[in-house]
Records
---
Amino acid sequence: MISKEFVLKIIVELLLHTIFWIVVLVCYTYFFGHNTDNINYVFSFSLFLMPVTIGTTYTVINHLIPKYLLKEKYLLFLLYCIYTIIISAFFITISFFYGLIFLSSLKLEGMAPMTRSPFFLFIAVYFVVFVASAFSLVRHNYKSNSANRELQHKVLETQLKLKEQELHYLKMQIHPHFLFNTLNTMYGFALKKSEETPEMILRLSNLLDYLLYQVDKPLVSLKQELDHIKDYVTLEKMRFNDTLDVNMNFENVDDSIHIAPMLLIPFVENSFKHGQIRNKKLSVYMKLKHINNVVHFSIQNSIYNSSENDSDGIGLSNIKKRLSSLYADNHELLISKDEQWHSVELKLNTSKTRNL
């Protein structure tokens, strides 16, 4: 079924074309009426010339331009333009004889001055064809640009959706290992009826709230991220008991500083997951400060054999991808290791976070 929008578009198109040709007829009458008072002759002659002009114009704009010029078939376009000129010149010449024979009774002086030479007729017709072709090219260019912009918009929209799905997938990979270990520890505490079980449940509840609800936000306060880390460390202390040595030094943190959620926790999780006990202790040291819109975060964990700790693990691999997506060139990440320590240093420009 034909829509109202389509019908309205056709009506508007016909109206615009009709107005254009009425304007052309008026211009013909004015141009050919120069130095003559015989308006009836001029109008009749202009009216007779209109079909030639209309036919030539629509041949060029509806056939030659879209099928040959816009498709870069220049030789064929030139060839068919020559054919069109020859045929239209023939009908223009007929128009000249129409004015000479039927309108002025074979008296050349009876013709309007501007119609006595086919040269002026050629100028008038081909000028209209040129103007109409220029409008047609501008219109094709506008439609092409609009189509390209719409296509680019769709491509960017698709890329954004894919990027959001990728980021969501990366976020969801971070905690399963930790949750599994924590639930096992909690199960052991419950069997022993430990007084620390309620505290562990509360800390885990806070972590799950952050993971399930806050993580979908584009940005969270840095303070929230650090509170999340503190809950995480508290749970790990309950798991490791006396074998864990953790030091956290967080400076210049307030609610006005925002980052993408779960950017720092993977570094912490990786330290506990891949850290190694040395001298009967797993040591993890963290520092954070915020200076001139830049977050300086560092974390190191103890190791005793660097060759066995070469893998970054899922956490660090994912966080590298997220940093590249969210912060692009606005971050610096340095990962190093020696015989005793695995170290991570991150600088993050919080003023240029991409809101994904």
---
Amino acid sequence: MLHAEHLTKRYGRRPALTDCTLTIPAGRVIGLVGPNGAGKSTLLQLACGLITPTSGTLEVLGSRPASTAAHLARVGFVAQDTPVYASFTVADHLRMGARLNPSWDQALAERRIAQVGLQPAQRAGRLSGGQRAQLALTVAAAKRPELLILDEPAAALDPLARDGFMRNLREFVAELGASAVLSSHLLDDVERVCDHLVVLSGSRVQVAGDVPDLLAGHHRLLVPRDQLDRLPAGVEVIHVEHADRDSRVLVRAEGGLPPTPWPTEPVRLEEMVLGYLTRAADPTAARAAVPAGEVRR
């Protein structure tokens, strides 16, 4: 669905995305997570063709983003502020969608509008934040894209509106048979709807993969502080959290964790993500916790 090779985007001297090499398979709902300023919006805007790379290459659905009108028709995009036209009615938005998109599905659009309680005569400027998000999602999905790209569309919504938006997103993806990329800093939303994860921080990809594989490849060890230098070879230390006597060590062991004398616990998605974000914010922390020769970095 998306393939990037050494993808880099700078704004002046400031790097927004650095040396990003990434392959995302089709048929997934991808969660793109990271702190503010991590490069999430930049990656999605590159994927939509709204901006161009400083260097490196990016293919979306096998082609350069926005290379042709036909390629644009295969991608639906909901920007961060879920933009709609304030003076347009709901019906105006559907008419505009029908005029601009060759594969527009009017029946789908009308059915979804009715399901979320929008009236065709309502002006978009008088809708609530949740209603505007539902309208923007409907317009993006009714063009029947192969790929839906959503840039933190539910960040400003209250919990009830966010729940409705996420439920409708899952339904759209299932109905369309599409792939989707959802950028969010709300890990609950990602865990609820996504089966593939990309963690961005500091303008770089920290980890990526199918969620079940990532969780199976990460472990939490409870290690006495005076035995941290005895971690098995071949594991990658992601994060270390010290207590009085023991340390909680988040490790990655893709080929399976070697036998250890210490208690081992499964890792939750939130803990794994926060471990990578913490390491990206202070890259010396994990290295300082364990002698460099004992771990694979």
